[in-house]
Amino acid sequence: MKRIGCVFVFALGFTQFIAAQQTDSPQGFDKSRLFGGGNFGLNFGTYTIINVSPQIGYHFTDQVAAGVGVNYVHYGYNDTYDQLKYSQSYAGMNVFGRFYPIRQFFIQAQPELNYLWGNIRYYGAEQTSTKIPTQFVPSLLLGGGAAIPAGRGAITISILYDVIQNMWSPYYHQAVYGLGYNIGF
C-alpha cells in the first residue's frame, strides 16, 4: 500500500514541479483551460466488456496538463463449450499528467488504483464457483500520444503501458491503446 501512495504523491509532485518551472503560466484559474474526455466501450457476445472512464483535466501551461478520472470496467466471458462463466469488475480512480514537447504530441504518466472483484463458475457436471480475491490493484501507465486539433477539442491517439505489471491489473502484459476526443483542448 505504501508503494501505491508513493506513486500518487510522485505523480502529483512531478506535475507541480513542471508547472512551477514554466514562465508563461497564466495567473489564476482560467476555465477555458479545462478539458474533458475519457473512454466508453461496449462489447457483447462470448466476451462482454463494459468500460466507462471519464476524465477532466486542466492545461496549466501550453506544455503541461494534469487531471483526474474515475473508471468502471467489467469483463465477462461465457464459454458454453468449456461450460465456464467468468466475471471480473474494476472500479477505480486515476490522476494523470501530460507534457507537450510539441503542441500536437504529449508524454503521459497515469497512476491508477482499481478495486477488483469477480468470480469464476463452472456449470458442467461438477458445478463450482470460485471468488476472485477482492483487492486494490495499482497500475502506473506511462507512454505518449498525439492530440490533433478538431473543432472545439482534439482527437487523441495514445499508447500506454503499465510498468508495475500486477497480475490482477486490467493492463497485465498488454499495451493500452487509446482513441478519443478531448472537449476543450
How are the elements arranged and paired?
Elements: H1 2-21, E1 34-43, E2 47-59, E3 64-79, E4 84-102, E5 105-123, E6 127-150, E7 153-162, E8 175-183
Antiparallel strand pairs: 1-2, 2-3, 3-4, 4-5, 5-6, 6-7, 7-8
Report on this model:
About 4% of the residues have low confidence. It is built from one helix and eight strands. The chain has a single domain, classed as Porin, CATH 2.40.160. With 185 residues, the protein is mainly β. A hairpin with a 2-residue loop joins β6 and β7. Strands 1-2-3-4-5-6-7-8 form an eight-stranded antiparallel beta sheet.
Characterize the overall form: elongated
Order of helices and strands: HEEEEEEEE
- Helix count, per DSSP? 1
Count of the domains: 1
CATH topology: Porin
CATH architecture: Beta Barrel
- For the termini, the CA-CA separation is 35 Å
Placed side by side, the strands forming the largest sheet appear as 1-2-3-4-5-6-7-8
Structural class determined from secondary elements: mainly beta
Radius of gyration: 19 Å
Strand content: over 45%
